[in-house]
What we know:
Elements: H1 2-22, H2 26-42, H3 46-65, H4 71-102
Helix pairs in contact: 1-2, 1-4, 2-3, 3-4
Amino acid sequence: MILRVFHQSAWKDLERLERLASEGQWHRALNLANRIAIGCRQIGENEAADVFASHAAMAIESAHADALAGAGTFAQLFQMARRVLVEVLDRVAAHVALADADA
């Protein structure tokens, strides 16, 4: 149950983070990235949380510093953070599917 909730909320948070970045709401995007990383840690994905948090922060801070490039810079730099999180979400989805099959 916890993994299912994490999976659903993390996908929504990822979409929201990308929307906030496209709107230039960098502080809110950074707070949300930290919340996503905390969720990863709560399910034991500590290494992924560290990689996600550091790459997301770098993408957000770089895009914020380069106001003219903004969301374009963010999208380019955020690719690694996004990939790491999607890999976690894929593992969680597989685990949830196995649990459902056993039920």
